User: What shape does this take?
Amino acid sequence: MLELKQVTAGYGKIDVLRGVSLEARAGEITALVGPNGAGKSTLLRSISGTVVSAAGSITFKGIPLSGRPPHKIASMGIAHVQEGRMVFGSMSVEENLLMGAYLKDRRGKIKESMAFVTGLFPRLRERMRQQAGTLSGGEQQMLALGRALMMRPELILLDEPSLGLAPLLVDTIYSSLETLNREGLTILLVEQNVRRALTYSQRAYVLENGEVILQGRSADILVDSAVTSAYLGVPLEGEDRLIRQSL
Amino acid sequence: MNLMIIENVSKKFGGIAALKNLDLAVEKGRILGVIGPNGAGKTTLINVITGYEKVDAGKINYDGKDISKLPPHVRARHGIVRTFQIPRCFAGLTVLENIMIPVLLRHSRGEAERRARSIAERMLLGDDLHKQAETLPVGGLKLLELARAYAASPRILLLDEPMGGLSQDRMEPIIRLIREMREDGLTIILVEHVMKAVVALADILAVLNFGERLAHGRPCDVMKLKAVRDAYLGEGHA
Amino acid sequence: QETFRIGAPLPMTGAGAAFGEKFKKAYTMAIDEINAKGGVNGRKLQLVIDDTQAQPPLAVTSVKKLVTSDNVVALIGGWASGVALAVAPLAQELRTPYLLDHPALDDITRQGNDCVFRLQPTTGMYSAALEDFLINVVYERQKKPIKAAYLYVDNAFGQGVAKYGIMPFFKEHSDRFVLGVCEAYSEKALDYKPLLLKVKNASPDVIIFTSYLTDGILLGKQAKEVGLTAKLVSGTGAGHSMQDIYEKSGGAVEGYFSSGPWHGDVTSPAWKKWRGDWEAKYGYPPGEHEIEGYVAIQVLARALESVKSRDVVRQREELRVGLKRTTMVTIFGPVKFENFDGYTNQNRAYNLTALGQWIGGKLYQVWPKRVAERDPKY
Amino acid sequence: MKRSSHRDLVALLLCLGVLSLLPAVIDTRRMPYLFDVLFSVNVAVLLASSWNILGGFAGQVSFGHAGFAGIGAYAVALLPHHLQWSPWLSLPFAGIAAMIAAILVGGIAFRLRGPYFALSTLALAEVARLVVEGWRSFTEGTQGVVIQQKPLYLFEADGALFYITSLWLAGIALLAVITIGQSKSRYFLHAVGESEEAASALGVDAWRCKMSALLPSAFLAGMAGGILALHTGFLDPESAFSISRSVEPIILTVVGGIGTALGPVVGAVILVPACEFLRSRFPTGHLLLYGVLLVVFMRFMHGGILGMVRRKRL
Amino acid sequence: MLLSSLVINGLFTGLIYGLIAVGLTVIFGVMRIINMSHGDIVMLGMYSAWILFEKFGVSPYVSMFLTAPLFFLLGSLIYEILDPIPLKRREMSSLIITLGISFVLATSAMLIFTADYRTVTLPYSQRVIDILGTRLGYPALISSAISLVLMCLFRLFLSRTHIGRAIRATAIDRTSAALLGVNVKRISQATFGAGVVLAGLAGGVLAPIYYVYPFVGSNFIIKAFAVVVLGGMESVTGAIAGGLILGVAEALGGAFLEHSLKDIIVFVLFLGVLFFRPTGLFGGRERNR
Ligand SMILES: Nc1ncnc2c1ncn2[C@@H]1O[C@H](COP(=O)(O)OP(=O)(O)OP(=O)(O)O)[C@@H](O)[C@H]1O
Ligand SMILES: Nc1ncnc2c1ncn2[C@@H]1O[C@H](COP(=O)(O)OP(=O)(O)OP(=O)(O)O)[C@@H](O)[C@H]1O
Ligand SMILES: [Mg+2]
Ligand SMILES: [Mg+2]
Assistant: This one.
């Protein structure tokens, strides 16, 4: 569905991505992991058009995306949830959600989308009239995600969706993502919680220093011991025991 | 000995009670972990302790004195230093300059630069010293937030989700670093959703829910509680 | 030099630009006429305008440029009193004759500057005819103390009329007149109704305004709107004696009086001819500014006749002496610069003011009796 | 850093010294207009640098510098008016009066951020103007005050004296800018300008920090207003507090390069004579040309002249 | 009696202040551009009303809507100048650019229309209506009513329509808005156009009750700023409230203080409000996190 070939992109003169090729297949969840500063967010940005790629090609359903402004790309059915919860702070929660349905052909289904999103995040329903900027960090994250779902996208780019969310809620979100995915939503997921990302995705890419150093089926990568130690981290002393005790 | 005692603190926003008659205490040289569902009032707690929000009722005792009337910068000078959940770097300054700001309050420029450099090294920011802060990725910003707060010579450090967004290769050294800080006598209040870090760091754990204290005690005890699991952890959290 | 250059620091841009434009037209017309007749002593006159934006600090720079870089033989105009207050001492310092044709604040010719001349009456004189009318007609008819209200624009001109004209009058005649509401108002307000309501509330017999044009228009319109009436409403020249105030207020000032400088004998053939020439050239009837500007150039031209030397510094001194000696009669009335009552080089002949009244869209001179075109409607 | 600060200082003094000799070379009496324009440039540098301290270094964009300049001007005008002093002697009081006003302003306006701050300073300047207009018995109101330009001791109050005084005042302003630019407080100012919350979380007293920029800024603006009033010889509220006096330093600084010590100088040296040239050449149309100049300039050089010439931070 | 008259009168004038300020609010709120040429655009609005009235006898209350597209075009053109400037620089650069535009507009008007003062005198200019014992002229009444309607409509437009919400969203965060499918450049341009149209309309309602000359813009710019800040930038409701407060404060101040000092009341009130609500009456507040 989405295909990147040898994409080079960056800010000013500095290239952050250096010849990245990647594919997100229709109906799949594709995970993108890697250390801080690897260029994961930059990659998502170059897909959604907020960073202009310098070389290479990006195609969505066979249509080239390079050179298109972000709003055009959005109207093709690609939603991008940025890192850092960029909600419209001085607008109400409801208005934020309605903004998700800004595109003309999405406006017809506002009611259903709204019901779906508030079903997913009941907290948002309680806070419909609250100013988005006064929500707690996690609430804002829910709103950002909900707003993107209001777009009814075909492909959603998620930049660390679990950041700042309580564990219980992370579970909820991931199971909803799974459901959505089963209903046909294609997902490209950037996540620091590598174990979780690999568990829920079908395919995964590991990005380091702007290059793809590893790719394959998520399940395979999850059991690769080299990757496990580098990206999942060795358990800290006592950690295992504590966690086991607490469960 | 308790360094910070929060007594019966309440804070309302319109109809929403962000904190309700909250009692908490942190012992000197210990790490108090604070967890709780989103919107439970954790950030609000940090805001009232550091003076960014006024309490509606209750007392905040620090080192034997009530500080609830002092403005934020005075509290900071008394050693109560925080980080922000959403990083607030000085966008136009470099990483090094960002860290130098609090040091400059006490030292000459040369000395400040020296100290800032060494802090940056310890906080894994050594390669980014001369980058403009606004160009840092999320992970870098989190580190910068922490480094800057540490540079302000805190006696008690209030960390609002310092680990969120950090990759594994950084989280582990940072956890180690925070432990070292505690060993140097620093008191820490750690608000965090990354359970791995909470478990690894907290001496005492407090769980907030709807602005109230749901549980309090040793992490392993607290995390076993059904109420905590239902409200916060869920089942497969690790 | 083959020409006599005359420097005019004027507001060509900014809020006073309308006035700068009026004087520019007046000067140009007079100079063109003089030059068409061969100039003065065979030398043509040339006008050099510099924009002051009616800001004294800019005017100072302007004048220095006009005097030292453009080598003007005289300065003229200035429009606003504030600017003239800054220009006058500078003209004195640079020993360049400065002929004021409009700035009216008394203080300008009271500083003993022998290079500064003023053609027109001072603010203190504007209300003379009105005062005369108030005592001899209004009071005589009523025979009991008369309640008055006075509103004046808060700038140098308004303050001048208030301080040297209206207020001393009411103080002196406090047995016959009671001045109730007496206020300065800001010139650029959108809404004067609160002020007018306050006046209405005091129900005075006599209302006096000292206004420019725009504020005068709004005051007239809005007085109608709030239903403010009195036995006598009068302006003191400036805005209230300009044709525009009648037309642009939609006739709201019908019946208003206006006490101001005598604009010459408006019935004389010379005046009528000039008025015709002006309308032919510019397409609208001249008002006080146009007459003042036009006459000022004529006065300068007459005085320049006594200038013989070629060196501009000497010329200026000769011109100063020439102005001092000038006695002439213009369409605006007689001109002679005298020292009296603390004034220096002030045209005393203009100590004559007249009271006009707007009747049917025209300002008729109605008082004093000697110069009246018709009887006042009172 | 130490060495560079010495170098800047020496360069500045050298420039001032050389420029001070100008009246010895060119007779001011023969070319008062030239010296008037130079005086205007100096005052513009003074005012713009003063604005730059607050707007460029502390990130607090003020729309109210006319207020400080006006208060300074009135100090110069009223002290001699009421106490029969030499107006020259009252010149320092221009700065002091403005500084006193600044303490009041800071108390009110520093609660506000960004455009709210900017526009509240505009309002404060208006309040100052209205007070001066209303307090007639003390200030002569809208009628204005004439300032007798008595000579200063042995010197005559001529173009040379004004030129040199304004030159050195501008020099002092630059010195202040350079000092601040090379001191620690530069960092604090910048930090507070970017995020007050973050700065105070680290122990920086944002209010005092901003005040430490406002006070010198107000002092210098007061001096600018003072010397300008002295030069004009007449003062009225309309021109003393004219909004264009608030706007001019912003134009000069932004066009020259905001937040750089030389920005205001470059802006003033280019724009003031250009403006004067246009005004004297095209008495009616000059503002049109000036407007076009500004638009074209900023459209293509949005970083200011210095920003284009060299990309130097802070 | 006097008091009620003053208040009613102040409210009506306040509505006009509100309309003058709304355009400024919108442009500031969305673009973070302090449009220094706002007053001059009001001036153009007044001139166009005057011209159409003098030459073709069209009432300003009609012509203001006829010329609205031209003002939209003007606004879009001005935006074209500003658009290429990087966002970070825009705040200061746009200040200078719009100031330059202000000079250009005022001087052009002077060269075209001369510096003379002009007024529009409608056939019913002198007609007066009595509202609760307060006499109000027809033009003042109509102007205020139109202002109120326009502001309310615009407010509804911003809060109830998709485009309106997109305008506000763009104001807050351009990138996020773009990612939701908003063409931010077009929206910004349209918003600037709308702000300029509102200024032009303000000129239309002012024409019958005020006078116009090329530099008249400076007469209301400070007041307009005061209204914008008082209400809280970017809030239309705030602009309405700010205008009303200003109108009433002026009316009372003008009656109980000397008229020329009435503005002291206005500005002291203004500063007082800001002191307690640093982001204006209806301004948004960000929380600390
Ligand atoms: N606006 C910018 N200007 C210049 N450089 C930038 C900018 N944004 C990011 N970078 C640089 O690009 C590199 C990659 O950043 P990116 O945000 O894509 O990383 P990331 O993989 O998402 O990291 P994280 O996990 O911390 O979010 C970093 O080195 C960063 O410094
Ligand atoms: N200014 C405000 N106005 C209204 N509600 C507010 C305000 N500030 C906070 N709240 C509400 O108070 C509650 C507590 O917020 P707080 O930020 O303290 O939560 P938190 O525990 O830090 O959550 P998270 O883990 O998501 O960051 C939230 O429901 C939030 O919406
Ligand atoms: Mg990232
Ligand atoms: Mg929080």
Observations:
- Residues A 136-137; B 42-43, 85, 160 surround magnesium ion (ligand 4) (CB under 6 Å).
- The radius of gyration of chain E is 19 Å.
